[in-house]
């Protein structure tokens, strides 16, 4: 007689943490920054190696390319993210005010129609 499986607590999905600290899945812009940074490091390092054939310097250029591209993409993405959040907040407040003041004496559209 097989025992029925006991209902277990819900399993939480493991998130991918880069170097154990950066939760790439839940932090906005982190995934794209790391991906574009790694691509930038490969392009910069390989390009420098093909031009100069100096291995150590090419690795240094690759690391520098990773840092520059990652930070550049991170700053650009976070700026756009913050701008979008501000626009969402303004829109949310506008909709809330529209719902709140609709059909009252404080409704700006109603005042314009009477004039």
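Sequence proposed for the structure above (115 residues):
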């Amino acid at each position: 007689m097989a025992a029925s499986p006991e209902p277990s607590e819900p399993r939480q999905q493991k998130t991918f943490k880069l170097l154990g600290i950066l939760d790439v899945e839940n932090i906005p812009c982190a995934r794209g920054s790391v991906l574009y940074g790694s691509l930038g490091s490969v392009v910069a390092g390989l390009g420098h190696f093909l031009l100069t054939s100096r291995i150590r310097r090419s690795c240094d250029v690759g690391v520098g390319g990773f840092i520059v591209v990652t930070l550049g993409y991170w700053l650009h993405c976070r700026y756009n993210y913050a701008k979008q959040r501000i626009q969402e907040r303004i829109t949310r407040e506008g909709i809330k005010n529209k719902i709140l003041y609709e059909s009252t004496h404080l409704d700006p559209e109603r005042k314009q129609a009477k004039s």
